Amino acid sequence: MKRTCVAQQLTGQIRNGFTLIELLIVLVILSLLGGIVGPRVMKHLGKAKTDTARLQIDNLSAALDIYNLENGSYPSTEVGLDALINAPEDATSWNGPYLRKPNVPLDPWGKPFNYRFPGEHGVFDIYTLGADNAEGGEKDNQDVASWD
Questions:
Q1: For residue range 76-106, what is the model confidence (pLDDT) as tens digits?
Q2: The most confident of 3-7, 27-31, 41-45, by mean pLDDT
Q3: Strands across the sheet with 114-116, in order?
Q4: Is 113 exposed, middle or buried (0-12, 13-18, 19+ CB in 10 A)?
Q5: Cβ atoms of 130 and 109 closer than 8 Å
Q6: What is the distance between the alpha carbons of residues 111 and 126, in angstroms, rounded to a whole number?
């Protein structure tokens, strides 16, 4: 036996599509799911940027070590990380570029990495101040450094 709704039995018409109530119920369910899932996804996005910054610092540190092996010293603070892409005037044995890409990468928040030689925490220091670009902070605002 074929099932029909009451409105269809009364009018004799077959309806196509959804009612306003059905659409509102779907929207409420989607909103509830977004409210539950959204914060969890955003939490992982912030952690991913911090992890990416850590990996970028490791790659820059490895490139600086190769630069040091070939040139006998790390680039000065004034020359900075650009020495990994463009030969400084005082680097007579420069055999770069030491990075695959034509530019020194920016941190995951779109700011340049900070570089210091000689370093205060190691031979050299590379660090980023996080999303807020201020010292300290937690989660997405935390500092990521080569000495951590």
A1: 999 999 999 999 988 888 988 999 999 999 9
A2: 27-31
A3: 114-116, 125-128, 144-145
A4: buried
A5: yes
A6: 13
Residue ranges of alpha helices (H) inside 1-141 are 6-11, 20-71
Peptide bond into 118 cis (omega under 30): yes
- 143 contacts 137 by C-beta, under 8 angstroms: yes
In 3D, which of 89, 90, 94, 88 has the Cα closest to residue 71?
A: 94
CATH of 18-145, one of 3.40.50.150, 3.40.50.10420, 3.30.450.200, 3.30.700.10: 3.30.700.10
Rounded CA-CA distance 74/95 in Å is 14
Please report which confidence band the pLDDT of residue 44 belongs to, taking 50, 70 and 90 as the band edges.
low
Domain locations in the chain as residue ranges: 18-145
The model's pTM is: 0.68
Confidence of residue 7 (pLDDT cuts 50, 70, 90): low
SS3 11: helix
At 128, give phi and psi (nearest 5°): -130, 150
